[in-house]
Write a structure and sequence with these properties.
Layout lengths: L20 H15 L12 H4 L15 H20 L5 H14 L3 H26 L5 E2 L3 E4 L2 E7 L2 E4 L20 H16 L1
Antiparallel strand pairs: 1-2, 2-3, 3-4
Helix pairs in contact: 1-5, 4-5
Length: 200
């Protein structure tokens, strides 16, 4: 299942970091609800989310009596989680946009408006995922600035040259799209700057 963690020291497949814990909670809750994926918050299985019909109770596949019957389900779940949370172009946003447009075309404006927040949330998550994929590889060179590994390495200002250290820690296999926490904001600013230059 998907969970928010403070660190990447365990064997969990880590994706992040993110700027806002509340944003991440909303994203996980939205995607989990749409696709009925597990977002386990209690130690009771199956939890109330199964009773409310917003989770398929994948945890039942872990019960010894049902292990053989549902062993393929966990493989399917792993694939669904990867597709849903790790791949920016997973189609979930387009599915919700299509549903929203259908409500709008049917003049059900109240229902259409309810999906606007989800659409904006999923767009922001997709934007952040795209950033995580390329941030470590961003490089740019000009007479004024030098960018390496998504960070400012050199800057020329008022005739002076400023050199900055690059934070490039080793990453473990489970740190799927990890970035140095202290450099995330700088890397995001640089990412947005390079994107704006590319679209100018």
């Amino acid at each position: 299942f998907v969970s928010i963690q403070e660190h990447s020291n365990d064997d969990w497949q880590y994706l992040g970091p993110f700027r806002s814990r509340f944003f991440l909670m909303d994203v996980i809750d939205t995607i989990s609800r749409i696709l009925k994926l597990p977002y386990c918050e209690t130690g009771t299985y199956p939890c109330s989310k199964f009773d409310r019909g917003i989770c398929r109770a994948w945890c039942l596949a872990l019960a010894p009596a049902r292990e053989t019957e549902l062993e393929q389900d966990l493989d399917k779940l792993h694939t669904l989680l990867q597709e849903s949370f790790v791949h920016p172009q997973n189609g979930i946003l387009e599915m919700i946009e299509s549903e929203r447009n259908k409500y709008f075309d049917d003049l059900e404006f109240a229902k259409a408006d309810l999906l606007d927040d989800e659409i904006n949330l999923l767009k922001a998550y997709r934007h952040w995922l795209n950033f995580l994929y390329v941030a470590k590889d961003l490089a740019f060179e000009s007479p004024q600035i030098s960018i390496e590994k998504g960070q400012l390495k050199r800057a020329e200002l008022n005739g002076k040259t400023y050199n900055f250290p690059i934070d490039n820690p080793p990453y473990r296999e489970n740190e799927l799209l990890a970035l140095p926490l202290a450099a995330v904001d700088e890397m995001k600013i640089i990412y947005d700057y390079i994107r704006e230059r590319a679209h100018a």
